[in-house]
Write a structure and sequence with these properties.
This protein is an alpha+beta fold and 239 residues long. It has nine helices and ten strands. It has a five-stranded antiparallel β-sheet, sandwiched between helices. It has a five-stranded antiparallel β-sheet with strand order 7-6-10-9-8. A hairpin with a 5-residue loop joins strand 3 (73-80) and strand 4 (86-98). The longest helix is centred in the middle third of the chain and has 19 residues, at 112-130. The protein is elongated. The model is unreliable at 61-69 (pLDDT under 50).
């Protein structure tokens, strides 16, 4: 009853890689009815280039582990829907014994949407990583430097590891620190705010910066964290 009602696809394979059980969610995910897959080789559900890999990831435990214990393993493969469309799937694997036969049960999840978000996050992470602007995020306490890109650390004369977790005030020139709470308050009120300030490097030198801060809030308006862009404007000021 649980297998029939769960949103995850559940597929059981025997030690010959044949499908012996197929729940309704597996039918929804792949498009095949149980009558079309029971007794068939599991490779019919996988993209051709995944066949050799799937033998290692899914069926490999039969050869690698004498007791067939694969509980807790999670693998990602490319599946094939009934009409030929390929899509990413995640399998959570466990094994069980029935008489002299060992079996693998695979809980199948269509991770198409998750993969899109992961790809999008990876793209933006790469953009931020290589940006010439300094980008920094405040911690949950809104008082510390939680995460930053190399450009931010470099313009202050530190490595990312040296700056992570340190108080935000430490990167501001001493005579600018008293005005920071007001600028933060304006950021929280407006959602985004840009101002000029002065920062201080590890060696004690002070330099002018342009700061753009954005307050990221939850549905109730509480600030979750701040994302801040910082540009060293020394050359512009000299010009």
């Amino acid at each position: 009853a649980i297998a029939d009602s769960t949103q995850d696809g559940i597929v059981v394979l025997n030690d010959r890689a044949q499908i012996t059980y197929w729940n309704p969610s597996a039918e929804r995910i792949f498009g095949f009815k149980a009558s079309e897959v029971i007794g068939q080789d599991v490779h019919m559900l996988l993209a051709p280039h995944e066949h050799a890999e799937s033998d290692v990831k899914v069926m490999g435990p039969f050869a690698q582990e004498s007791e067939g214990r694969v509980a807790g393993r999670t693998v990602k493969l490319e599946g094939i829907r009934q009409h030929g469309e390929s899509f990413p799937i995640e399998l959570s694997l466990a094994s069980f014994q029935t008489g002299d036969s060992r079996n693998v049960v695979a809980i199948v999840r269509d991770i198409t949407e998750r993969q899109k978000w992961e790809d999008e996050i990876l793209k933006w992470s790469s953009v931020i990583e290589h940006a010439q602007w300094g980008v920094v995020y405040s911690g949950r306490d809104l008082q510390s430097l939680d995460s930053m890109n190399p450009a931010f650390a470099r313009m202050h004369g530190y490595t990312v590891e040296e700056l992570r977790g340190r108080p935000i005030l430490e990167v501001f020139a001493p005579d600018e620190r008293s005005s920071l709470p007001q600028n933060i308050a304006i950021t929280h009120q407006r959602g985004s705010y840009t101002w000029e300030s002065k920062h201080i490097r590890k060696d004690g030198t002070v330099f002018p910066v342009l700061i753009n801060a954005t307050a990221v809030k939850d549905g109730e308006g509480h600030v979750l964290y701040r994302a801040v862009n910082v540009l060293d404007i020394t050359e512009q000021k000299e010009a």
